[in-house]
């Protein structure tokens, strides 16, 4: 080696070290800015929900509450205890649960079946079926409001939780099918062939062989569907009112319809309560969510 | 009675023709290898035998019964796949007995079979493991075990060794051969590896573009290829095919390559039909291993060719010679020293040659 090239290597090494260091600090800086930006609204919500109205009027958005005061949370959840006009979240929360659990279950299950058929039991025209399902993903919510209202009317389940379950199941199937189809194409068809030779039928292959390896995609689908359905406002407000409304609709009514003073602390507490279940689902299953999104093949 | 008989079988996927008029017969206990380049329809044919694919034309008989409309599970076959296809959520035991459980075999019988087969294949220590906790070779054994416990009439193998590394492949190849010697079950085995085909098969069917080119014993496939495709496909390096013409005069036949005056006498060649030979355009086929650097046989034909290239591969070397601008490859022990760009004396073993019609590319 020549001395000259040696020293120039050293220089280059130094230079790239400084560049890397700078880029790294710059990256952290940007990340911190973004993190603050996203966390700020949540901070304001939590802080505000813990304040009394007095504190809210006197302080700024950012001031720390004087103590842990959960009164507004209790009001948001259970009301003040006087009769007419007192809207609170508890009954609607259960409405939402009663809607979201079966809707997520059915749409996930049907999507899994459909994905299984589309990948492992190919039939004439299956490409078209898949294309139409894909098309279903691009139909905007608004476009199906009227036909759906009519359908629910004919079935006699308008303004009911069951009606909403049906709406969300049907609207979710294109997405869930897409998820499961894309997952199942990566599973070797030889598995299905081996099982057929072993004498397993259509359902046995599905339940005994494919479903047990589908955990990642099931989790992804559940998170997706749960978030969609729980957070939905349009279907809820169109196809239900009063008693049968889901939580998002009730939240809206609560915040908008209060005739007296705006109770920011109760509003904030209600909004957080309405958001908690999705948070829980994410925390419990988030690890799988990332894994499911990134894992392509599950060979072996 | 033929264990397996395939008649005039054709198959197409939409407009692509994958198999064309396949005829095959296998006697009880034979080991048939389907050999051919990628995409020639080997797996499709195997899947049709298993009943996993539909048939467009023709029939499949097992033990003289037409099974064309019989379900895979009722055909009395078992199949081993390239990707092993072990059920990922089940352990080795459950994998192996899954088929028997479906067939509602009694518990005692299942246990008995499982014990016998797992001992035989030396997987009895792995029974509680999941497939993901096994090595490639172990997975392969379990996959074979899953096929064995069913005690089928016919074993179908679809490139079972191609996912293994070179060393393990040779070991497993020997094990499959031993297995067949002991069990004497009929086997149909798909591969695109000619060494595997040669060493395992009692019969080899060479396929190309959905057509069977030759179905014969390994010896005949190697020594008497029925067309230039087979000649070229088998052997490494493959057979030299030298273009030229035949000359017939006063009952003596000889071969002359284009632009040369060297006459290679081929009187000893076993022609299929000894007529109309004069001036026929042909390929003169000779394997690299049948060209020698010293005379070993009285009838060997002596010829002087220029050496152009030498490839050293350890125990031997592959030399490329120039024969009137056509390349001729020869295989010598690596101890032999041959100068490049010089004429070298070579000897053709004329008892081992093949001749092909240049137009039809069929053996004559
Ligand atoms: N389901 C299918 N639809 C359409 N074409 C197919 C289908 N399955 C196989 N083919 C085509 O049929 C031909 C034969 O396929 P096959 O899998 O039998 O080949 P192969 O000989 O087993 O090849 P390889 O050695 O690569 O496994 C290929 O050209 C393939 O593209
Ligand atoms: Mg194949």
Offer a concise description of the structure.
The complex is a heterodimer of chains A (300) and B (364). Chain A is mostly helical and 300 residues long.
Descriptive notes:
The complex is a heterodimer of chains A (300) and B (364). By secondary structure, chain A is mostly helical. Chain A has helices spanning 3-49, 53-58, 71-78, 90-120, 126-137, 145-155, 161-184, 190-197, 202-210, 215-231, 234-239, 247-257, 264-294. Chain A folds into 2 domains: 2-69, no CATH class; 90-296, MetI-like fold (Orthogonal Bundle), CATH 1.10.3720. Chain A has 13 helices and no strands. In chain A, helix 4 runs parallel beside helix 7 (161-184), helix 7 (161-184) runs antiparallel to helix 10 (215-231) and helix 10 (215-231) packs antiparallel against helix 13. In chain A, 32% of the residues are buried. With 364 residues, chain B is of the alpha+beta class. Chain B is built from 8 helices and 20 strands. Chain B has helices at 42-50, 92-102, 107-120, 136-148, 166-183, 194-200, 218-223, 228-233; strands at residues 4-13, 16-26, 31-35, 57-62, 65-66, 77-80, 154-158, 186-191, 203-208, 211-216, 240-249, 252-257, 263-265, 281-286, 291-292, 301-312, 316-323, 326-333, 343-348, 354-357. In chain B, the strands form 4 sheets. A 6-stranded mixed sheet of chain B has the order 6-7-8-3-9-10, with helices on both faces. A 5-stranded antiparallel sheet of chain B has the order 13-12-11-14-20. In chain B, strands 15-19-16-17-18 form a 5-stranded antiparallel sheet, with no helix packed on it. The longest helix of chain B is centred in the middle third of the chain and has 18 residues, at 166-183. Chain A binds chain B through residues 188, 190-191, 193-200, 204, 208-209, 212-213, 298-300, and chain B through 47, 50, 52, 72-73, 77-79, 81-89, 98-99, 102-103, 131-132, 139, 146. The structure holds adenosine-5'-triphosphate and magnesium ion (MG). Magnesium ion (MG) is lined by residues 42-43, 158 of chain B. Magnesium ion (MG) binds next to helix 1 of chain B.
């Amino acid at each position: 080696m020549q001395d000259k090239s040696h020293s120039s290597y050293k220089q280059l090494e130094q230079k790239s070290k400084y560049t890397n260091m700078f880029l790294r600090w710059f990256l952290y800086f940007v990340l911190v800015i973004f993190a603050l930006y996203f966390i700020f609204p949540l901070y304001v919500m939590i802080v505000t929900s813990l304040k009394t109205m007095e504190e809210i009027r006197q302080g700024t958005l950012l001031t720390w509450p004087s103590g842990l005061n959960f009164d507004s949370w209790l009001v948001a959840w259970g009301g003040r205890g006087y009769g007419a006009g007192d809207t609170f979240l508890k009954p609607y929360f259960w409405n939402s649960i009663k809607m979201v659990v079966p809707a997520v279950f059915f749409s996930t299950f049907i999507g899994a079946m459909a994905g299984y058929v589309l990948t492992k039991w190919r039939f004439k025209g299956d490409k078209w079926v898949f294309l139409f399902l894909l098309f279903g993903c691009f139909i905007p919510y608004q476009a199906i409001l009227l036909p759906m209202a009519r359908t629910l009317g004919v079935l006699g389940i308008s303004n009911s939780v069951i009606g909403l379950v049906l709406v969300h199941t049907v609207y979710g199937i294109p997405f869930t099918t897409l998820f499961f189809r894309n997952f199942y194409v990566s599973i070797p068809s030889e598995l299905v062939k081996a099982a057929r030779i072993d004498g397993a039928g259509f359902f046995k292959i599905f339940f005994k062989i494919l479903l047990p390896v589908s955990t990642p995609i099931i989790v992804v689908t559940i998170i997706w569907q749960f978030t969609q359905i729980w957070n939905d406002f349009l279907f809820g407000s169109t196809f239900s009112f009063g008693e049968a409304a889901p939580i998002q609709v009730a939240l809206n009514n609560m915040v908008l319809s209060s005739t007296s003073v705006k109770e920011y602390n109760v509003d904030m507490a209600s909004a957080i309560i309405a958001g908690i279940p999705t948070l829980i689902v994410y925390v419990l299953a988030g690890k799988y969510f990332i894994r499911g999104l990134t894992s392509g093949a599950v060979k072996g | 009675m033929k264990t397996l008989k395939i008649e005039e079988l054709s198959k197409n996927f939409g407009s692509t023709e994958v198999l064309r008029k396949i005829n095959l017969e296998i006697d009880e206990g034979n080991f048939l290898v389907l050999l051919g380049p990628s995409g020639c329809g080997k797996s499709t044919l195997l899947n049709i035998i298993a009943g996993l694919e539909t048939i467009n034309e023709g029939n499949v008989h097992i033990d003289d019964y037409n099974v064309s409309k019989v379900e895979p599970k009722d055909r009395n076959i078992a199949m081993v796949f390239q990707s092993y296809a072990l059920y990922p959520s089940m352990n080795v035991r459950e994998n192996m007995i899954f088929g028997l459980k479906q067939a509602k075999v009694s518990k005692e019988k299942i246990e008995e079979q499982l014990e016998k087969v797992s001992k035989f294949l030396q997987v009895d220590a792995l029974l509680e493991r999941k497939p993901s906790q096994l090595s490639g070779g172990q997975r392969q054994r379990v996959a074979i075990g899953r096929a064995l416990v069913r005690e089928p009439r016919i074993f179908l193998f679809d490139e079972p060794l191609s996912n293994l590394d070179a060393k393990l492949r040779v070991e497993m190849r020997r094990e499959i051969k031993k297995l067949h010697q002991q069990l004497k079950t009929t086997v149909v085995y798909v591969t695109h590896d000619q060494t595997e085909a040669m060493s395992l098969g009692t019969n080899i069917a060479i396929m190309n573009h959905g057509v069977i080119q030759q179905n014969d014993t390994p010896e005949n496939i190697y020594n008497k290829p029925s067309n230039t495709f087979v000649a070229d496909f088998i052997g490494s390096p493959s057979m030299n095919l030298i273009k030229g013409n035949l000359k017939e005069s006063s009952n003596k036949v000889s071969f002359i390559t284009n632009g040369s005056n060297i006459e290679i006498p081929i009187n000893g060649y076993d022609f299929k039909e000894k007529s109309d030979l004069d001036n026929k355009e042909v390929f003169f086929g000779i394997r690299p291993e049948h060209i020698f650097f010293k005379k070993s046989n009285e009838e060997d034909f002596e010829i002087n060719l220029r050496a152009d290239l030498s490839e050293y591969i350890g125990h031997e070397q592959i030399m490329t010679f120039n024969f009137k601008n056509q390349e001729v490859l020869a295989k010598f022990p690596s101890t032999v020293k041959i100068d490049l760009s010089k004429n070298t004396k070579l000897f053709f073993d004329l008892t081992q040659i093949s001749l092909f019609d240049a137009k039809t590319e069929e053996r004559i």
